[in-house]
Amino acid sequence: MVITPGPGPNYAIAGMVTEDLTNARIHGGQGISMISGIWDADEPAKTIKKILHS
What we know:
The chain is mainly α. The protein has one domain. Helix content is 43%, strand content 7%. It is built from three helices and two strands, in the order βαβαα. Strands 1-2 form a two-stranded parallel sheet. The protein is elongated and about 35 Å long.
């Protein structure tokens, strides 16, 4: 994960999965973009719930 602090919100993108959310937050990220992480999940609905409740 490459982190470049800036004045605005920071987001992690490209190939992110739910396990990356905690790491992104630890390093100051406000969120992650994980379209493929949801589409490729065995159970997309459970993946979305996990993200929303983390």
